[in-house]
Structure formats: structure tokens, C-alpha cells
Specification:
The chain is an alpha/beta fold and 334 residues long. It has two domains: 5-36 and 146-317, 3-Layer(aba) Sandwich (Rossmann fold); 39-140, Rossmann fold. It is built from nine helices and eleven strands. The protein has a seven-stranded mixed beta sheet with strand order 1-2-10-7-8-9-11. A four-stranded parallel beta sheet has the order 5-4-3-6, with helices on both faces. Helix 1 (39-52) runs parallel beside helix 2 (69-81) and helix 1 crosses helix 5. The chain is globular. The N and C termini lie far apart (48 Å). Bound molecules: pyridoxal-5'-phosphate (PLP).
């Protein structure tokens, strides 16, 4: 028995989804966390550290810009710890996530004006700064740059991936990137334990995280309109780009083949693994770990809706973007 379900973070299932006998893929199912995503790890760890180290107290307001999952997680843990929370979301935030954030007592501010990259992040961050300037005792969780967020992932999912890999051997780890905290903490831990593991970042076309042309994007939780500074301390070997249409198709394939009902970024990660190994010669079996950050359940009207899928695919076909100059099939980061 647990005293509160919110204390049951981590030790999420790791399931094999063998791509082939040579490419053994294991997916860490982060939707088994209490509020449904990997972000519980960061929200709970961050607030505990801030309260224990007296960086904040019960009178501090927490503020964050989130496309959804971190907002849902922070709203739950702020409520648990009795803290006021302001969440700045945007038009791509799923209605169900907005509802959950509000129901947990947070104040929600919704940005509807896109920024120059066709995303909403720059305007979300502008709003955060505006509120910070006029509010006393306010702490910005800042998943895009806060080392405590990377430390959360280093100490939890990073550790779990290293311990749970078959024979503790990880040849590759694939992670979707948005604010960059997950890949920063996980890559630091994995490279610490096993410097030979290749860390592969997964991004979507139209995201500017690693360079390349910007375009409007539709799937929350993958890609960004900025290069988050937290990534300066990430240890990434290569970046694989996938389209949003491919991501959606791969979500559906995960459900059809493996009974995994996963969110949009999980489809991106699976699409990237398929693409990467279809272009690579492998001479002995490799262990590939990956993170499926959230569940498909909240995406009924988007990822799993045919009309929405067709709209995204048509938009992508009509708006090709430039990839970063070094791009071949993947971008090597020296
Ligand atoms: C569903 C989903 N996948 C992946 C990520 C990427 O994680 P990070 O923001 O730590 O890069 C997020 C972040 O919001 C997410 O919501």
C-alpha cells in the first residue's frame, strides 16, 4: 500500500519490442507514472529539493511554461505540497491536459499567438517573464535551463535504464527532445555508467532545437522553437529527424503490433529507431533502450483521429523544411 499515489513514481515497466533479432529494442513505459508521464519525476524531485533546501517556502508561487505534461505533473505535486502554481500553456496543449491542470487548482494562462517559428514557446516564455516581473516570491521551474530538472532524470530514469538493461549493456538510447531535460539527465547518467553507449536525440521536422528550418508543428512534447540551454550539458552523439506524419503512423503501429497505446513523441522515437537501423549495417545484436514519455489515451482527438492525421500530413507535404546542413540520415554532434 502507498500513502498517496503521487509517491509511486518510477520503476516503470521496461518492455521488449524486438525490431529484429539484431536490433533488440526495449521501451521504458513512462505513462505508468502517477500523472501519466515522465514529467512526474522532474516535478516531484524539483519541489522536494527546493523545499528541503529552503529555496522556496509555502508562500512561494511556482510558475512554468509547459505544452502539457510538465504542467499536469507540477499541478499535482504543487497541490500535494500546498504551493500555488501558474501554468502557461498554448493552443497545442491537449484540452484534457488543460482540464487536469485546472482541476488540480492551478491558474492556467493560454497563449494563442504563434511566435516567429510557428510555435508558441517564445510567447509562452515572454508571458512567464511578464508575470515574474510583477509577482513577489515566485519561482520559475524552467525546465529549459534548470540543472535540478536534469538531476531529477539523472537520479531516477537514468539510473533505472542503466540497471534494467539486459546484462546492463546499452548500445544505444533514443530519446525525444522538447525542453531537453530528459535527454540531458539521462545522457549524463548513461555516459557516466557506460561511455560507449550512443545517445540519439529524436527531433521532428520544423523544430529548431538542433538547427534547420522552422515550421508550424502539431504534436505537443516533441520539438521546440528554441535551443534550450539545458542541452549544453547533454551528451548527445547523433540527432535523428522524423516527420510528424511518420510519428503518428508509428504510434498506430505500436498499438497494432505491441499493444502499446502511446503518445505522439513515443511514435517519433519508434520512427527514429526504425529509420536509423534501416540505414545502418549491424554485425552483432545490439540493445536499444528508449523512452515512451506518455500514453495515447489523451490523444484520441489528435494522434488517433484520422482527420487530424490527414491535416498534419497534408500540412507537412505542403511545407517542406530545410534540415541542418550536416544532415544525412542523422546529424552527428562532434
Ligand atoms: C510526451 C512528451 N515526450 C517527450 C518530452 C520531451 O521531454 P523533455 O521536455 O525533457 O525534452 C515531453 C516534454 O514535454 C513530452 O511531454
Amino acid at each position: 500500500m502507498v500513502s498517496n499515489i503521487l509517491n509511486k513514481i518510477g520503476n516503470t515497466p521496461l518492455v521488449p519490442i524486438g525490431l529484429s533479432p539484431m536490433v533488440r529494442v526495449f521501451a521504458k513505459l513512462e505513462f505508468y507514472n502517477p500523472t501519466g508521464s515522465v514529467k512526474d519525476r522532474a516535478a516531484c524531485y524539483l519541489l522536494n529539493r527546493l523545499l528541503n533546501e529552503k529555496i522556496i517556502d509555502q508562500d512561494t508561487t511556482i510558475i512554468e511554461s509547459s505544452s502539457g505534461n510538465f504542467g499536469v505533473a507540477l499541478s499535482a505535486y504543487c497541490k500535494l505540497f500546498g504551493l500555488k502554481f501558474i501554468c502557461v500553456i498554448d493552443e497545442n496543449t491537449l484540452p484534457v491536459n488543460e482540464m487536469l491542470i485546472k482541476l488540480q487548482g492551478a491558474e492556467v494562462i493560454r497563449i494563442t499567438e504563434p511566435d516567429q517559428h510557428g510555435g508558441f514557446l517564445l510567447n509562452r516564455l515572454k508571458k512567464v517573464r511578464e508575470i515574474m516581473d510583477k509577482t513577489e516570491k515566485i519561482y520559475w521551474a524552467n525546465q529549459y535551463g534548470n540543472p535540478l530538472v536534469a538531476a531529477a532524470y539523472y537520479n531516477s530514469i537514468g539510473k533505472e535504464l542503466c540497471l534494467e538493461a539486459p546484462r546492463q549493456e546499452i548500445d544505444y538510447v533514443f530519446l525525444g527532445v522538447s525542453s531537453g531535460g530528459t535527454i540531458t539527465g539521462v545522457s549524463q547518467r548513461i555516459k557516466h555508467e557506460n561511455p560507449n553507449t550512443k545517445v540519439i536525440a529524436v527531433d521532428v521536422l520544423g523544430s529548431v532545437i538542433f538547427g534547420g528550418g522552422a515550421k508550424k508543428r502539431f504534436i505537443p512534447g516533441i520539438g521546440s522553437s528554441i535551443t534550450p540551454v539545458i542541452l549544453d550539458s547533454a551528451k548527445i552523439d547523433e540527432v535523428v529527424y522524423v516527420s510528424e506524419a511518420e510519428s503518428i503512423e508509428c504510434c498506430r503501429e505500436l498499438l497494432a503490433k505491441y499493444n502499446l497505446y502511446a503518445g505522439g513523441s513515443s511514435g517519433s522515437v519508434y520512427a527514429a529507431i526504425k529509420k536509423y537501423f534501416s540505414e545502418k549495417d549491424i554485425y552483432e545484436p545490439v540493445n536499444v533502450m528508449c523512452v515512451f514519455a506518455d500514453s495515447g489515451e489523451r490523444y484520441i482527438t489528435t494522434i488517433y483521429n484520422d482527420t487530424w492525421y490527414q491535416k498534419v500530413a497534408a500540412y507537412e507535404a505542403a511545407h517542406p523544411v530545410e534540415l541542418p546542413q550536416l544532415y544525412t540520415s542523422s546529424l552527428k554532434i562532434s
